[in-house]
Specification:
266 residues; alpha/beta; 8 strands; elongated; binds NADP nicotinamide-adenine-dinucleotide phosphate
């Protein structure tokens, strides 16, 4: 077992559960998880309790990972303010700003705000993290280790970047799933039986993702590699790459998500 200090996970839902699974795969230290639904502990090294009052006495976490819904922040975070001096708080809550969380945890709280995405469930997420004031190098390294268990991690110092990050990588898996959905529908329109249409759409998206992950080439080069002049791919891309088509739609979509992230921030 890797010798890292104990972790307290607050919120054992989809994202918290994915993080815990990633930590366990890496043999990270025993943890306590708090969740009112009391899901079964995934192993003997994890204690699951229903609320902050049931955390074993004497358990002093080095990191507290805040993985509850943003709308639960106001009622939940003050319950953990007592740890603020000893623990770094790593929040993955969308839209909860460092300043907003400090008002709930105390001005002296060492906080890291991070935005992961759902491929974390298969340890292929990408997370952008931003440290708040007073986070030590050791605390930042611990947060990096915890986030690296669910995929890659990039750090930024400008918290304002988390709005467009949310729009690109946080919400991004939905855009890719939409692409698969629309390809399936279009395949059916061309007469492909529904089961085969579903298989072709899903496996084209997942296989292309795997190829992209395995390649150092620019995405434009990978695209050009399947595009012969005058061929079928060129015919399709001629439609998709019309400036008013996919380029405009994605640009508008990501701008809309960025705006919405700013509106929801607090
Ligand atoms: N899913 C994404 O794409 C994504 C991406 C990036 C970041 N995030 C962030 O990740 C966080 C978790 O999202 P999720 O999708 O994992 O949500 P989720 O599945 O609803 O998980 C949240 C869990 O926290 C529990 N909970 C509620 N109040 C609590 C409390 N006071 N103490 C401890 N646990 C409590 C909930 O229980 P109940 O169900 O009983 O309320 C639920 O099991 C959110 O803040 C979200 O913004 C999500």
């Amino acid at each position: 077992m890797t010798a890292i200090p104990p972790i307290l996970l607050v919120g054992l839902g989809k994202m918290g559960g994915a993080m815990l699974a990633g930590w366990r795969e890496r043999g990270l230290a025993p943890s306590v998880a708090v969740d009112p639904t009391m899901p079964a502990a995934p192993g003997p090294e994890v204690t699951v309790v229903a609320d902050a009052a049931a955390i074993p006495a004497g358990f002093v976490p080095a990191a507290i990972v805040l993985a509850v819904k943003p709308q639960n922040a106001a009622e939940t975070l003050p319950l953990y303010a007592r740890y603020a001096g000893a623990s770094v708080m790593l929040s993955i809550m969308a839209g909860r700003t460092l300043a907003g969380m400090r008002t709930l945890l105390g001005e002296g709280a060492a906080l890291v705000r991070a935005m992961p995405n759902t491929p974390a469930a298969v340890r292929q997420g990408v997370t952008v993290a931003c440290p708040g004031p007073g986070v030590t190098a050791a605390q930042r390294a611990l947060c990096d280790t915890l986030l690296a268990a669910i995929g890659s991690v990039a750090w930024v110092d400008d918290e304002a970047l988390l709005d467009p990050v949310t729009a690109v990588s946080g919400s991004g898996p939905a855009y890719v799933f939409l692409l698969a959905e629309l390809m399936e529908q279009a395949a059916i329109e061309q007469g492909i039986p529904p089961a085969l249409a579903r298989q072709l759409a899903r496996e084209t998206v997942s296989g292309s993702g795997a190829l992209l992950a395995a390649s150092a080439e620019d995405t434009a080069v990978l695209r050009q590699n399947v595009t012969s002049p005058g061929g079928t791919t060129a015919a399709a891309l001629g439609v998709l790459m019309e400036p008013a088509a996919m380029p405009a739609a994605l640009s508008r979509a990501i701008a809309a998500a960025t705006r919405r992230s700013r509106e929801l921030a607090g």
